[in-house]
Amino acid sequence: MKKYEGTQDRKLIHAVCNKCGRSLRVEDGYLKEGCFSAEAVFGYFSRKDGTTHRFDLCEDCYDEMIATFQVPVEEKEGAELL
Predict the structure, then answer these.
(1) Among 19, 54, 71, 82, whose CB has the most other CB atoms within 10 angstroms?
(2) Any alpha helices (H) in the chain, and if so which ranges?
(3) Buried b (16+ CB within 10 A) or exposed e, 31-45
């Protein structure tokens, strides 16, 4: 999970992988390593109706997760890294 400081100009102060618990490297408000962030909003016809789940995974835990998929993730090379 990512933790921010301030309400208007939110500055990232800490990030941790929800799966393994490892602290991710944050310097001067910027995440300095790969991190997968997800947010799922559950609506009608869901057992979690009206709830939102958020989590962050380090790159290793993300790789472990997608290795279990029956249908591989779609991969596309980007022309520019942001």
Answers:
(1) 19
(2) 59-67
(3) eeeebbeeeeeeeee
